[in-house]
Amino acid sequence: MTKKYNMRTRMMLSLTISVSIILLTILISYLLSPANLITDFTKKSLSPNLQHPFGTDWLGRDMFTRTLKGLRLSLFVGFLGAAVGALIATVLGIAAATLGKKVDSIVSWLVDMFIGMPHLIFIILISFAVGGGIRGVVFGVAFTHWPSLTRIIRGEVYAIKSCEYIQISRNLGKSNWYIARKHILPHILPQIMVGFLLLFPHAIIHEASITFLGFGLSVQTPSIGLILSEAVKHISIGDWWLAIFPGLILVCVVKSFDNIGEHFRVLINPTSANE
Amino acid sequence: MQGNIKKILSVFCFVIMITAVLAGCSGPEQAETTTDSQQKVAEIKDELILCMGTRPPGEFDPRKRWGLYSQSQILHDTLLTRNAELEVIGDFAKSYQVSDDALTWTFHLRDDYKFSNGEPVTAEDVKFSYQMLKEDGKHWDLTFLDRIEIKDPQTILFHLTEPRSTFVAQLTEIVILPKNHYDDNYAENPIGSGPYKLVQWDKGQQAIFVVNPYYAGKKPHFKKFTLLFLDENAALAAAKNGTVDMIYVLPEFADEKIPGWKLGSYESNDVRGISLPTHKSGYGTTPEGFVIGNDVTSDLAIRQALYIGLDRQAIVDTVLNGHGKKAYSLVDKMPWWNEETVIADNQVEKAVTILAEAGWKDRDGDGIREKNGLKAEFNLYHASADVIRTNISIVVAEQAKKLGIRINLIGSNWDEIKTKMHSNAVLFAGGRHHPHQYYYMHHPDLAGIAYCNIVYMDNPTVTGYLNKAMYASTQEEANKYWKLSQWDGKTGSSGLGDAPFVWLLRLDHLYAGDARINVGKQPIHTHGHEWSLLANVGEWTWDADAVNK
Questions:
Q1: Which of A110, B244, B367, B430 has the fewest Cβ atoms within 10 angstroms?
Q2: In chain B, which residues have their Cβ closer than 8 Å to the Cβ of A60?
Q3: Contacts of A248 in chain B (CB under 8 A)
């Protein structure tokens, strides 16, 4: 690689590309008319062409529109999942480290239990419990992605807790709540941000998996998992475009988020930011 | 960073490679299959491997609906049966008489039928089969059967509590079971007197049938046939590989060309439509405790608007690739069908007028009509494993939107749908060789029992006609009342009247198979695409000279 640009510049460039991929996806998905999703028997199973860059499906719906609108759902669910996950992780992580041994052991036990079981099984259980549909997917994804981040935050808080300024603050008679809010939270905020960003791709992939498996998501809802599971049913007649393009786009978006999260982690870490 | 680019590039190259390999494959593969089939031209084949769905419908036991989908004549015999022209002819009963009051049916039995274990079929077995299913009472309504009398070993009398013009339906469907060998595990080793016997059944994988050596009728040509339980995709792949001889195909796959094969298309009365609950919510619960009623579909205007407003031909073209016909009733093309129920559909303007006159108007401009604060919106349940039903639902929901009705699709399985079908619309199906299904899907006395009258249709005039048809002593008289019950000029069970169901289309049953398999004369098929063709598998032959055109 050329030495012309330093690491930071290249990183910024890659960040920009990733962010623009995601923004573009969202933007286009809003611009595309829902009329493209109307079935049309004159346009059944067309391979990719200028009018339909991703081809059409067996009912004559434009796959480009379906894919991007489906991705929007994935992004939405991913965002909710990551946000709720980060929130739970923050609360539990701080609670575990500051509220004493009992709370700590309960939280650690919960974390171990959730980590010990595959995500997908939990998502399936939760989404069944709340009655399936989009709600099921959102709840399922949201309540399963917090354990690893909880662990990290708990560790961070423990480290901060033993710092001198915390002891001083305590000696000055500040309450636990005050210390958590004023001294601990600002320090772990970067961890939460990074954790949130890195949860995102995870949540998106799980959203796709869970909708791939069905779980009461209406066939009217454009969803990337649904598209892929339908594509599987048409592989044997050679409609390759049904699977390849949506799959590629999904990979691109997920990779973009991963990229942003990774770079963000490097950039906000004082020891690596100046490399 | 650099690593990332490399990774992405390698993934991209991999995808391109796979695509290239796939594209390259199709050429030589085709050539290979052609030579393969040329070599086989001379031989007479007497074994078949077939793919007809993922499981045997009814699972060989009449208590699980075995016999309802034209499977009665594969492993078993029945008292009466139907030929390809749908005329009722004798089977185990050589002949039969019905008394003038239509309350006593006398059957003269044959004495040369044997079960696949060599034991003779007797009147006791007949009595047992009917009695057992009457007591079971789940899928076979035999409540009208008073008692069964065995006069002598060759004569059996059925005494009815009331006349029953559709009794013939059950007589052609209920299989004769061996009294001494029937128990809860019967499906594992079903003993019958039909042309074939089941020798192996690996659930979810395959079932192997061989000729029953004791079969009294004409010996089948094919000594053995194996059913592979594969889904439609795997079946198509197996067909292209040349590992199977015949498959049932979805309309989407009908245009696939396989060398040496031909597509068989058979007209059916296998209808698809939407059931629309006819009562408001709060109507009560079914005997099993499921809620009845729907505030939107209970409005006649909504049901009638859908009946005339939907574009049936567009659904046939979109979902079935044209392999189907428009349908207007549950009994299209049958002798008891009232042809007046055929209407011009896709009348969006007229449908909109009906809705507007009934007070359904879009006041808030969201494209969906309202009436007294109620949105014209309802759920439509469809079996998500069923591709055709799913696709029909998608198109119906789209078309309904044009009328200002929002249909929310809910894909589910039958275990759940059974609990919701009395209070929600369901993508429903039907079609039989007799009017009995029509009877129980519209008669209030049977409402809520299993799949009978799920819409809680209760129109006294229609019920009157249904009863008259049921009590009629001749088929002609019965047919007259069946037709009147659909539409008598004022009311009826069809879309012209109460429209409890909006029937949309009849499937053409499609099968692809080796061009040399001769499936004999097929009657118009009934509900049950996968197995309908198998109904007469005992009559199939191998036509060595037949070539694919």
A1: B367
A2: 318
A3: 15
3-class secondary structure, B288: coil
pLDDT > 70 fraction of chain A, expressed in percent and rounded: 95
Question: What is the rounded distance in angstroms from the CA atom of residue B387 to the CA atom of residue A13?
Answer: 46
Both tokens of B462, joined, read 């229609």
* SS3 category, B208: strand
ipTM: 0.80
Domain ranges of chain A: 66-274
CA atoms of A103 and A92, how far apart (whole Å) = 9
Can you tell me the distance from the alpha carbon of A240 to that of A244, in angstroms, rounded to the nearest whole number? 6
Do B318 and A240 lie within an 8 Å CB cutoff?
Answer: no
Out of B1, B15, B398, the one facing A10 most closely (by C-beta) is B1
Residues B129, B156 contacting (CB under 8 angstroms) = no
Adjacency order of strands within the sheet including B155-160: B93-98, B104-109, B155-160, B145-152
Residue B70 DSSP SS3: coil
**pTM, rounded to two decimals:** 0.85
- Using CA coordinates, name the residue in chain B closest to A258: B4
CA distance B354 to B174: 45
Give the pLDDT band of residue A186 (cuts 50, 70, 90). confident
Residues of chain B contacting A, Cβ within 8 Å: 1-2, 4, 8, 11, 15, 19, 22, 26, 232-234, 236-237, 240, 252-253, 256, 314, 317-319, 321, 384, 387, 390-391, 393-395, 397-398, 408-412
Cα B474 from chain centroid (whole Å): 27
CA separation for the pair B548, B263 (Å, rounded): 10
Contact: B384, A39; criterion CB under 8 Å: no
| Spatial CB neighbours of B319, under 8 Å, sequence gap ≥ 6 | A59, B251, B388, B391, B392, B395, B505
Give CA separation, B150 vs B98, B128, B156, B168, B171, in Å.
Answer: 16, 11, 5, 19, 16
Mean pLDDT by 10 residues, chain B (549 residues): 54 55 43 45 81 90 90 93 89 92 92 92 94 89 91 93 90 94 91 94 93 92 94 90 93 88 93 96 92 95 95 95 94 93 93 95 92 94 90 95 94 90 96 92 91 94 95 89 95 94 95 92 91 92 73
Q: For A1, which residue in chain B has the nearest alpha carbon?
A: B2
Q: Is A191 exposed, middle or buried (0-12, 13-18, 19+ CB in 10 A)?
A: buried
In CATH, the number for domain A66-274 is 1.10.3720.10
**Residue B501 belongs to what H/E stretch?**
strand B501-514
Amino acid identity, position B177: L
Q: How far, rounded to the nearest angstrom, does the alpha carbon of residue B134 sit from its chain's CA centroid?
A: 23
**For testing contact with chain B, the best of A45, A127, A218, A234 (most B CBs within 10 A):** A218
Residues 28-57 of A with CB under 8 A from B: 38-41, 44
- What kind and span of H or E run contains B118? none
How many CB atoms are closer than 10 A to CB B476?
Answer: 9
